Amino acid sequence: MFFRMMAALAGLVIGLSAAQAQLIGGGETLSQGMICSTNPYATTIYRIMPVANEMVVDWYHANGVEFMPIHEGIIVPYSLPILAKRAELLKALGVGQRFAFKTTDCKEYGPKVIHCADYKRAPQDINGHKVRALSTYTSLEQSTSFAGSYSMYATTLHLEVDGQGMFVTMKYEDRDCFFLKSTQDKRDLF
Questions:
Q1: Omega of the bond leading into 40 within 30 degrees of 0 (cis)
Q2: DSSP class of residue 112?
Q3: Hey, where are the domains in the chain?
Q4: Which alpha helices (H) appear in 15-114, and where do they start and end?
Q5: What are phi and psi of 9, to 5 degrees?
Q6: How far are the Cα atoms of 11, 40, 57, 66, 79 from residue 74, in angstroms, in the given order?
Q7: Which helix (H) or strand (E) is 2 found in, with range?
Q8: Cis bond leading into 111, ω under 30°?
Q9: How far apart are CA 50 and CA 63, in angstroms?
Q10: How far apart, in Å, are the Cα atoms of 34 and each of 63, 100, 111, 189?
Q11: What rounded mean pLDDT belongs to the chain?
């Protein structure tokens, strides 16, 4: 019951039906597109989908830029001024960004595990900032501890904003990433 309610909520936020918002198993591939959204409430949404001869990546922060991911990994006191600068750069880009990679620059390594890269791309202007999406990739992370075993998908954007390189990662429970089923799933997020 709880999962059905959360799937319906996800549907309201991103325009999917409750059935579409549930995980889809089977032989789906990246050519259908994929979306990851935090549950029970959508915060950061990552979607990659085919459009003509490109794979389009949408990155949307439903609760605004104050709640967008800016880093993944170990943080030490020395990191704080660097992260503050990164946060300001990323916040200036706004709540939603769209990047495109040629389909020939993308490869699928397994279900929901992809990599797209173009390290020679020209920058695009986003709110007065020169932004290059150098790569995007997803990974499946499996962990076992005293609390049990679980799986998570991590989505990462490798960006260059005004010459500053950064990797921005968001993690999702494995059930929060699913393949797109129809054109309804591919409508604009922002």
A1: yes
A2: T
A3: 2-186
A4: 18-21, 79-92
A5: -60, -45
A6: 34, 26, 26, 20, 9
A7: helix 2-14
A8: no
A9: 26
A10: 21, 14, 10, 14
A11: 84
The model's pLDDT over 9-58, given as tens digits with 9 standing for 90+, comes to: 344 343 433 333 333 334 567 678 899 998 888 889 999 999 999 999 99
How far apart, in whole angstroms, are the C-alpha atoms of residue 153 and residue 78? 28
**Cα separation values, 22 from 87, 129, 152, 179, Å:** 32, 37, 16, 10
- CB-CB neighbours of 153 under 10 Å: 21
Would you place residue 179 in the very low, low, confident or very high pLDDT band (cuts 50, 70, 90)? confident
Per residue in 94-123, pLDDT (tens digit) is 999 999 999 999 999 988 899 999 999 999
| Integer Cα distance of 33 and 28 in angstroms | 9
Q: To which residue do tokens 């998570």 refer?
A: 152
Listed residue (107, 99, 76, 72) closest to 160, CA to CA:
99
187: how many CB neighbours lie within 10 A of its CB? 10
Q: Can you read off the two tokens belonging to residue 35?
A: 């979306």
Q: Does residue 162 come out as left (phi exceeding 0), alpha (psi in the -120 to 50 range) or beta?
A: left
Question: In sequence order, what are the beta bridge partners of 46?
Answer: 36, 59
Q: What is the mean pLDDT of residues 146-157?
A: 94
Contact between 179 and 28 under an 8 Å Cβ cutoff? The reply is yes
For residue 171 the two structure tokens come to 């993690």
**Would you say 16 and 163 are in contact if contact means Cβ atoms under 8 Å apart?**
no
